[in-house]
Design goal:
The structure is a single chain. By secondary structure, this protein is an alpha+beta fold. The chain has two domains: about 30 residues; about 150 residues, Roll (Nuclear Transport Factor 2, Chain: A). The chain is about 40% helix and about 30% strand. The protein has five helices and seven strands; from the N terminus they run H-H-H-E-H-E-E-E-E-H-E-E. A five-stranded mixed sheet has the order 1-5-4-3-2. A two-stranded antiparallel sheet has the order 6-7. A hairpin with a 2-residue loop joins strand 4 and strand 5. The longest helix has about 30 residues. The N and C termini lie far apart (about 95 Å).
Length: about 180
């Protein structure tokens, strides 16, 4: 009788251990993923420096090894590589204003659709000198959150419409867009 009880205990422990480990891993993953309202607040904070120029929030909301896909022209990888991007955008577009039109949170990801309005008055953009022209374009970003920070971002901006709004003529085989005057 003793051997049968011990055998049952061993079999029960063997069956429960993987389940317990999976449950524990799931609980840890849930703790590491911010609640939807927290995730929304974190990703909304990501965009504030575009409007204010104050990039200090990135020390809190971006993981140190944050991956940005694709990196911008001259952008260095990681958290430290992003403040210069904000500085560049705000230099080219001193009155830049970014609005989050939609924020959709699902699990550890948040998708954001934004509208950017600005005047091209501060410097060259894609080789086009400051034109003084007002611009409006959209961007869509997907952020992956981990441990309460943005760990990875994929983004696409409608820079083709920016070129058209600046009056650029794009010809097949040319390396750079040229304004039409």
């Amino acid at each position: 009788m003793k051997q049968s009880t011990t055998r049952r205990s061993v079999v029960a422990a063997a069956l429960v251990s993987p389940l317990a480990a999976a449950t524990l891993a799931s609980a840890r993953a849930q703790e590491a993923t911010p609640a939807a309202t927290d995730a929304e607040a974190i990703v909304r904070a990501f965009y504030e420096p575009f409007n204010t120029g104050d990039t200090s929030v990135y020390d809190t909301i971006l993981a140190e090894d944050w991956a940005d896909h694709p990196l911008g022209m001259g952008q260095q990888p990681g958290r430290a590589g992003f403040p210069p991007v904000i500085e560049m955008f705000r230099a080219i577009f001193p009155d830049l204003h970014l609005t989050n039109d939609d924020v959709i949170v699902c699990g550890d990801k948040a998708t954001v659709r934004s509208t950017i309005t600005a005047t091209h008055s501060g410097g060259d953009l894609f080789g086009i000198p400051a034109s003084g022209k007002p611009l409006q374009f959209m961007a869509i970003d997907i952020h992956r959150l981990e441990n309460g920070q943005i760990a990875e971002t994929w983004h696409i901006e409608d820079f083709l419409s920016v070129l058209f709004q600046l009056g650029a003529v794009i010809s097949s085989g040319e390396a750079a867009a040229t304004p039409t005057g």
